[in-house]
Amino acid sequence: MSDTTETNRALLTQAFAKLEHGDPSAFLPLFDESITWRVMGTSNWSKEVSGLANVERDLMGPLFAKFTGPYLNIPELVLADGDHVVVLAKGHADTVDGKVYANDYCFVFKLAGGKIVEVREYLDTKLADAVLG
Questions:
Q1: CA 80 to CA 27: how far, in whole Å?
Q2: Which of 133, 130, 122 shows the shortest CA–CA distance to 38?
Q3: Taking the mean position of all CA atoms in its chain, how far away is CA 22?
Q4: How far apart are CA 38 and CA 45, in angstroms?
Q5: Per DSSP, what are the bridge partners of residue 119?
Q6: DSSP codes joined into one string, the chain
């Protein structure tokens, strides 16, 4: 394994270790200013957003506005190969509508210089539409 592979695996493992408990503090500093985030599929939530400010405004803002408390994302598997890290995870949050949002995810992260420059997020989009609107 290359140093890059192990460094990138460690960065994402540490970030998800905190996110597992609802703490995004180790995750947010990993986002590069030029990040592109793609939510795959054909749901209301499926989109491609580029630039950190746009990701925060157009993706994270509307999503977290749906939750009443912390958003948990529990990693099940972290695979790394060079600049790419794949994380299988289970998300959980309570919504402002009194529903439980529990989805399965596969995140494919691309890193450059220790920063996340690209995310491809795969999830149950039908569930996202049903619970989050």
A1: 17
A2: 122
A3: 12
A4: 10
A5: 37, 109
A6: --HHHHHHHHHHHHHHHHHTTT--TTTGGGEEEEEEEEE-SSSTT-EEEESHHHHIIIIIHHHHTTBSSPPEEEEEEEEEETTEEEEEEEEEEEBTTS-EEEEEEEEEEEEETTEEEEEEEEE-HHHHHHHH-
Say which CATH number the domain at 102 has.
Answer: 3.10.450.50
In this prediction, residue 2 carries a pLDDT of 73
Domain count, the chain: 1
In this structure, what token pair is assigned to residue 81?
């190969």
Phi-psi bin for 113: left (phi > 0), alpha (psi -120 to 50), beta? left
- Give the range of the structural domain holding residue 57, as residue numbers without chain letter: 3-132
Mean of pLDDT over the chain? 95
The predicted pLDDT at position 131 comes to 96
Segments of the chain scoring below 70 in pLDDT: 1
